[in-house]
Amino acid sequence: MLEVNGLTKKYGKKTAVDEISFSIPDGCVGILLGPNGAGKSTVIKSIAGLHKYEGVIRIQGMDAGERRAKESFAYVPEMPAMYEALSVCEHLEFIKKAYAIEDGKEETEKLLRRFELDDKQEKLGNELSKGMMQKVSLCMGLVIRPKVLLLDEPMVGLDPAAIRELKEIVLEEKKKGTTILISTHMLEMVKELWDIVFIMEEGKIIGSFKRDEIKDGNVEELFFRLTGRKEAV
Amino acid sequence: MEAIFYLYKTEWKNWIKKAAARPSTYVWLIFIALYVLGVGGSFLSLFKAYDLANARGMMAVFTLTVFFFVPGNLMAYAKRKGLVFRQADCNVLFQSGISPKKLLLYAHMKNVALSSLVSVVIAVLGICFFHIAVWQAVLLLLVSLAAENVMEASLMVLLYGNERLGSLGRNLIRAAMFACMSLFVVIGVWIYFRSGRQIMSLAGYLEHPLLQTVPFAGWYIGILDLILMGPNPLNVAVSVCYMGTVVLCAILAVRMKCTGVYYEEALEFAKEYAEKRKRSRKGELVVGNKQKHYKSAVVNYRGNRARAILYRQILEYKKNRFFVFGMDTVLSIVLCVIFSGLAKGDSFGVFKIFVIPGVMAYLCFVFASVPGKWAKELEKPYTYLIPDRAIRKLWYMTVMEHVKSGIDGALMAVIPCILMKLPLPYILMTVLLYVCMQACKMYITVLCESIFGRALGAVGKQFMRLFLEGFAIGLGMLAAIIGAVAAPEIGFVLLFLVELLLAAVLFFTASSKLAFCPGV
Q1: What is the pTM assigned to this prediction?
Q2: Chain B: residue whose CA lies nearest to A82
Q3: Taking the CB of residue A109, how many other CB atoms lie within 10 A of it?
Q4: Residue A101 per-residue DSSP state
Q5: Are B194 and B261 part of one and the same domain?
Q6: Comparing C-alpha atoms, which of A10, A115, A46 is closest to residue B381?
Q7: 3 state DSSP class of A209
Q8: In sequence order, what are the residues at sequence separation of 6 or more whose Cβ sits closer than 8 angstroms to the Cβ of residue B178?
Q9: What ipTM describes this predicted complex?
Q10: Is B458 in the same domain as B392?
Q11: Which one, of A187, A180, A145, A149, lies nearest residue A25 by Cα?
């Protein structure tokens, strides 16, 4: 369960996120949808504890800053952050140690296979393409078996096979009861995944809808109506 | 070509507008002006002391710079480097249908603008510092703006844009230029030591007629010699050679076929350059552009959570060619040799215990704006996501840096301190003092990132780090001066205690602020 209450984030005088509140229950996929600069990444980074913010964020009922809360969520950044001297498998080993995940060798190998990284385990961070980095970054998020999964523009840079795999993984995690929050500006990519969508513009949530509230699950039209935009997101 | 001029003009206009609106530009200008005045002033005194504040001295400076820059530039052009095409240039201009040769000239225009500015400064300096006549300065300026720029541009086109010159030819040119530069330096060093370390003998070497017979660089010196020192058969002959070569090179450059084979290498260099710029904007000291290669290594993680950061760093260091040792280590060894040389005499008397700490403090201050390898931890989200206390994270993030500082401090101080016959506690305290000063520098980086991370740009943060590091060192020095009034030993102990205390206070403050570093 992820709860956000009155989240406000300012950069100097500029308010990037203005008093937003929402919650996503266990086993649900929430989508933060909005144009570039709407504040989606700022919301995700604030939840991940990477930004100072005003307001309350709770993960599994705990304050997001608490150690036990940090243990239970994973964040996959938009721009993959790799250690250039570490190989793919060393990245995963480091993350498992940092989160005190004792075993899971098989699980790790399965993950690497799913993202077609099993033959690239010895590749170093500075030898990977952007797409590969993104895949490793996703594996690093998933290997800690999170209860809450934060994905910031996760499809950007992935090849079609990896996008399909990621969608399957999201659905599997959802079945396991994991709360998932995905920030994106490409609704097409997540249309079969979402349960609840939050439409953002200029740092505010201007509308939130559950899947069963919208006919045919077509949020695109709703987005254009709410934002007054004519062009595609 | 019109499009290129438009691009060039608009970029410069916007760049100047943007720079003029930033307060940091003015701070930099003041800083640069003070630096130039300081360095220029000390050079002027040096020239006056050796009776070189005249045309002869100016010739010596020209010879020295020409023999470094001309072969250096030719080496770069032969390597298809030295011209900065940005990624946007490669994506847009290379496909625009503009002739590849014109594109080379476009990239070269930035070098021309800079060298023209330098030429104007040199002409003014010539009149003010070296007391040359105004007509000589004007002639120098004309030669530099016209002949030198045409020559440089022609050679650049002939080397960079050449499509018949294979890699062997390019390597031979580079080797020849490198040999030319090395020979110039080796002969200079040999003469300096042979003459009993006399600066005047070096000036004599720079005036040697043989130097003027070297093609390109030497001939250019010849034409400058003709203007500054008056005609003689040699400088007239080489000046004619130079002017003839300028015309010949220009004709060859115009007639040479260039279809844009260089695009591929220019694109590669553009990528490297963009990466280098990105890193230097973050305050990193960037040497070389090549992708780093790592050895294979393993590490046994003995502990988890924040401790995993330490073991990951050890793994990274084990993959390095020289483990934790690098340029810092070389600098420490060089300083050790210098300190050991100084330790032989007793030139510092009772204050000798402050010599090494003083240099250590200077090093920390000078390199305060360079955050170092460890600061990359602040850019990775995992540092903040790891479920552990900030204090443990900061400790394990920086512990290897403390070990490195300890090694560098020991390399720098132990042998000279033994030679100075200082007791063991002083030696230990000197090494620990360096560790503390370096620790202060790291914790100040965290504080600057967390407090000013969003408010200030990279330059602003560098100044802030410099200021705070200066303040931390200043506090230590103040304590040392107060203590030294009673006895130098008391001053030394006070210096150590103040730096230790500061490191501890900064550590706790920085760990409380670690979560607010917006580096990701």
Answers
A1: 0.75
A2: B380
A3: 15
A4: -
A5: yes
A6: A46
A7: strand
A8: B71, B75
A9: 0.85
A10: yes
A11: A180
Which segments of B129-166 does DSSP mark as H helices, in order?
Answer: 134-142, 149-160
Contact B387 A124 (CB under 8 A): no
Residue at A195: amino acid letter: D
- Sorting pLDDT into bands at 50, 70 and 90, what band is A232? very low
Q: What's the CA gap between B413 and B430, in Å, rounded?
A: 7
Q: Tokens 């030497």 — which residue?
A: B218
Q: Which CATH class is domain A1-72+147-233?
A: alpha beta
Q: How far apart are CA B351 and CA B59, in angstroms?
A: 43
Q: Which of B502, B499, B496 is nearest to B354 (CA)?
A: B496
Contact at CB, B520 and A95, closer than 8 angstroms: no
Higher-pLDDT residue of B261, B91: B261
For residue B206, give its domain range. 52-269
User: Looking at residues B303-326, what average pLDDT do you find?
Assistant: 93
Closest residue to B312, CB basis, from A65, A74, A83: A83
B304–A100 CB contact, under 8 Å: yes
User: Domain spans of chain A?
Assistant: 1-72+147-233, 80-145
A37: left (phi over 0), alpha (psi -120 to 50) or beta: left
pLDDT band at residue A233 using 50, 70 and 90 as cut-offs: very low
Q: State the residue for tokens 């008093």.
A: A19
Question: Which one has a higher pLDDT value, A89 or B36?
Answer: A89
Helix (H) or strand (E) holding A73: strand A73-76
CA distance A40 to A43: 5
